[in-house]
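Hi W., the alpha-D-galactopyranose complex you wanted:
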Amino acid sequence: MVDGGGHRLDVARLAERFDDVFGAGTTCRAFHSPGRVNLIGDHIDYSGGWVLPMAIDRGTTVLVRPNGESVMRGMSLDRPAEGVVETSIDNTRYRPELGWFAYVTGVFQMLAEAGHRPLSGLDLLIAGNIPDGAGLSSSASLELAVAVAANEIGALGLTGAELALLAQRAENDYIGVACGIMDQLAVALGRRGHAMLMDCQQVSVEYVAFPHERASVIIANSNKRRSLNESAYNDRRRAVELAGSQLRPLLAGRRLIDLDHAELDEVHEILADDEVFARVRHTVTEQRRVITAAAALQEDDLMLFGALMRASHESLRDDFEVTGPELDSLVGAAWRQPGTIGARMTGAGFGGCAVILATPGQEQDVIDGTAAGYRADTGIDADFFLVGSDDGAREVAR
Ligand code: GLA
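Structure:
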């Protein structure tokens, strides 16, 4: 299935639904937060590396109105069967029965821990068009839409980077996913027309113009659900951290990502375990690829950019081992299409989505060829959609 770009959620219609669900009242405010695709640089944000994501024009819209009571109420139009969920504003502590609402209450809990208690409860209506569990940061998108809403409504004056860090803390300490900062920061600080060269150590972003007129961005969903294989994700993180401590004398105050390619032989000698060494090799080489890729984008060298995407996928497949047969087949099929500039898995891996850059005008051929190759290999139908870039989380209408 293919659908085009420009996926605006209709705020006026959502406002009607809001009144249906929560009753008519004062006008609600609306906030929108994008999802993200990572163009290159996976599994190095938590090592403090540089990554190159882009906020996309699919996201999450949240309509909000203070309810004058001391309850937070939420309804997700994507989960209508669950109806309205609620919790007291004095008790936003994590409980499994909160389900999806934990991504909302987690933000309020972190705000409360930072001394920002809401003056009133809120009613929240949520609608999104990011496929769930596909590695396009639907949870970060929801968290940031809520965080920006709380920041604006409470006039808290927090910056986008501060809100991103707060949302990351909600993931790490509340939801229990040991993610890095890439998703939350990309979603908070996206800019239309740009990719973001992100320094995950400094939590800062340099914008790099993205040549949309020369490269169409296609997302290919393998439809192999990425059960954010949390334990595998956390294992990778632990392996990299373990290597960092074993290499401390060699690093002499540097980080793994600062290692030079020429030092890898020495690293291999120190690290007894071949698998741990491979994780380090990915970390070091991926960092290099991101820097080179950002320069290639600035110099309009899309051929080089595409080659680096391929090398990145191969490293994630062979050294980091986070791709899996479905993503390898999907990306392999994309590589075989003449209109493909580059393709790789995107995000955490273990299923989920791939990103394909295609020559404008040849998108349909790339999609058809990739879909056929993937189906022949796996028997699975992938979904494809074109995305544009978008701005970060923001208020969209009152
Ligand atoms: C997930 C995490 C990110 C990052 C990617 C892999 O999306 O949330 O922090 O580690 O995986 O690059």
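The chain has twelve helices and 13 strands.

W.
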